[in-house]
């Protein structure tokens, strides 16, 4: 019953908040740049807590689900574990400088197109009929991320 109840909650993976956006050749990131990641405007269905109950066969099951952590697979072999993260802002970066995120950031060492995947790990607790337990539950969302590289040429002049 707990599994059926969990399926009916229609929970969602978090939206990827990233700066630089890295979604096209105008807003790409750069080698050596401090990239910020966060859960973009997480709704109850993306972060929790969500509670629900269902009854059947004389038993009532209650379930509570909430995101415990988000694992960011950066596509270059790096996996970071974060909470909600802190959204990037010009104020937080002293006017847009290359400042590290306070809680969820990454620096790419090579240019390329990377598949970034954010996996939400949910704590799902259930109880009913004098019993209780936890259910493992994850949801993922991916996006392509473009990283370029600045290069300087010294002409000797």
Structural write-up:
By secondary structure, the protein is mostly beta strands. It contains two helices and nine strands; from the N terminus they run αβββαββββββ. The chain has helices at 2-8, 44-47, and strands spanning 15-19, 29-30, 35-40, 50-56, 59-73, 79-82, 105-106, 112-128, 131-148. Strand 8 (112-128) and strand 9 form a beta hairpin. The longest helix has 7 residues, at 2-8. The N and C termini lie far apart (76 Å). The model has no long low-confidence stretch (mean pLDDT 94).
Question: Short summary of the structure?
Answer:
This protein is mostly beta strands.
- Relative strand content: over 45%
Low-pLDDT stretches: none
Oligomer: single chain
| Main beta sheet | 6 strands, mixed
Q: Count of DSSP E strands? A: 9
- Rg (C-alpha, Å): 20 Å
Helix content: under 10%
Amino-to-carboxy terminus distance? 76 Å
Quote the average pLDDT. 94
Spell the H/E element sequence: HEEEHEEEEEE
């Amino acid at each position: 019953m707990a599994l059926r109840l969990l399926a009916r909650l229609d929970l969602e993976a978090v939206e990827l908040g990233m700066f630089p956006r890295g979604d096209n050749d105008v807003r790409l990131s750069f080698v050596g740049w401090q990239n910020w990641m966060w859960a973009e405007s997480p709704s109850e269905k993306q972060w929790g807590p969500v509670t629900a109950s269902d009854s059947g066969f004389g038993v009532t099951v209650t379930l509570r689900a909430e995101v415990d952590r988000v694992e960011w697979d950066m596509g270059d072999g790096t996996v970071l574990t974060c909470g909600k993260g802190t959204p990037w802002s010009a104020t937080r970066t002293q006017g847009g400088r290359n400042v590290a995120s306070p809680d969820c950031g990454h620096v790419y060492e090579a240019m390329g197109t990377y598949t970034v995947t954010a996996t939400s790990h949910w704590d799902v607790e259930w109880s009913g009929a004098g019993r209780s337990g936890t259910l493992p539950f994850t949801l993922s969302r991916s996006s392509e991320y473009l990283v370029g590289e600045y290069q300087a040429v010294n002409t000797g002049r």
